[in-house]
Amino acid sequence: MSTLPSISSPVFIHELDRDKIAGRLERVRERTLSLVSGLDWQVLQSQHIPILSPIVWDLGHIANFEELWLCQSLARLEPLEAEFAKMFDAVLNPRPSRKDLPLPVSRTRWDYLSRVRTEALGVLAELSGNEATKLLAGGFVYEMVAEHEEQHQETILQLLQVLESPPYLPAQRRLLPPGRTMPESMVLITEGAFAMGGSGRAFAYDNELTSHEVTLPSYWIDRVPVSCAQYLEFVEDAGYNRQDLWSEVGWGWCQETRVSAPGNWIRRDDGWWVRHMDRIEPLRGELPVIHVGFYEAEAFARWAGKRLPTEAEWEKAALWGPSADRSRLYPWGDSAIDASRANVDQLAFQPAPVGAYPEGASGYGVEQLIGDIWEWTSSDFEAYPGFSAFPYEEYSKIFFGSEHKVLRGGSWATRPSVARGTFRNWDYPIRRQIFAGFRCARDAG
Ligand SMILES: [Fe+2]
Fold this sequence. Notes:
alpha+beta, 4-stranded mixed beta sheet, 3-stranded antiparallel beta sheet, 12 strands, globular
């Protein structure tokens, strides 16, 4: 399609401005520490569920990643602790095994984090600003380290939301806007090409690159995510007991786990209740359903006479528009996320009701694409055309393939920088501790 713009020279979020970089790293760290500061040792050291690390491992891993990139890669400094590179390597240590590591908890918790930071800021101060390396171009490596820590904050929140005795008590909490009545509706996205992937106008991971043209036939997509009220109908219609609604592998999972409702739903004599951190409240039909796995999303869609959108369909509905000639950074345009447009940044501790963000609508009028819940798509996590691993293969390349499904859009627990329109998340279809829900699509015509 000749109308698509070509990629111009990248303008990343952070040029090599030392104060800006130091401030960015500092604010990220403040949030990390504020999330965990009220927790006692026992909670920090324990592995609460096998698929999530002890929080002290996450903290050590955050520091080790920063040391690897900002101290060792940039300045060839020696490791502060020789054994930490292996101990905090996410690939060498699968999640269930991390509780068995000799985690040096007393030092790791605060001291290693701050020692690395001091060293990293020392390296930053020594940079001339004229280094012509791809790692430093536009401050790439600093934004990568900041976003890596922010992504681990969300992982830590996955663990905090399963704590039960005592439950996690947020130190601060942001109020959410009310929803609005949303008659069930779908939006028609007309056939045609669009530019998918990062265009170079904002920071992007390797797996978001490069911008490439994708042509889609017309399709319908839900205006808002599937609500708890809609999902409850599926539950009450014996959705979990009807094999015809499930894929073969999904049905096997359903039988094996004997799951019969989303995570954190609690059946009581007086109906369904739902837990969000320390709050247990009667099920609110207007909230997007959350803590469902891919197989459940797929079964619901079949029950509703629909299907899940592909990743490309999600992105076109989010970032393109009826008369667009280039993709937006966010559904509403290129301006940054604010509280009137999306529920991100962790401090609400739950999704907002459907219909809460009309100002966050995309060019096609699709709403709540960013924030509240990650949205399962039907797509496997695969490389875009022209993919090149940078700066390391373990971020995304080793995860490409049919084992992982792509999720898009960020959740309430995602930091604003990460919740950009082209960001690609991926996970196993069985995962339910992540903050994921979905919306449906269907073929047009
Ligand atoms: Fe990591």
